[in-house]
Task: structure prediction
Amino acid sequence: MIVLALGLYLVITFAIQTVHVIGLSMYPSLNDNDYLVANKLDYRLHPPQRGDIIIMRDPFDSSKDFIKRVIAMPGEELLIKDGHVYINGHLLNEPYLRSDEPWNNNGNWPPPGSVDAGKPRVIPPNQYFVMGDNRNASSDSRVFGPVARDRIEARAWLRIWPLPKMGTVDQVKPTLETSSSLPVAA
Result:
């Protein structure tokens, strides 16, 4: 019985994490009051990948967690212009975003007024640019900057509540257009 209890403790502590989604920053992929199981082991074996839905420590309060999607990886050039994401000069196609709601909040990054506004910025080593799927209602890297790898705790894996939506959560991945499509600066 002690061995079983110890085994369960180790799995719960080091392998999985339960997550209660609060808010709509990841809508429509995740909804307010969804319950998830996150995999803590994934990122001990390999780094986060573009499109992963991650659990990370809140950059303003380490006692809380955020849930976001990885958009840009270390070493990549990122530019967000007029609500379109460009990585290394290629448009990022994001099929999980709502097409019926225009993205009008923080639709440019680096932000207007910054020294490098309108120019791609390289994501620093060991950091990731993350955003919520509900771009108009998400506090994310557009606000707090790229996230250090050691602040990323787990990968969202399975929605367990509500029951009708039970299943894996990050099956739909973004893709980069193959042709260079970065808009020319005016």
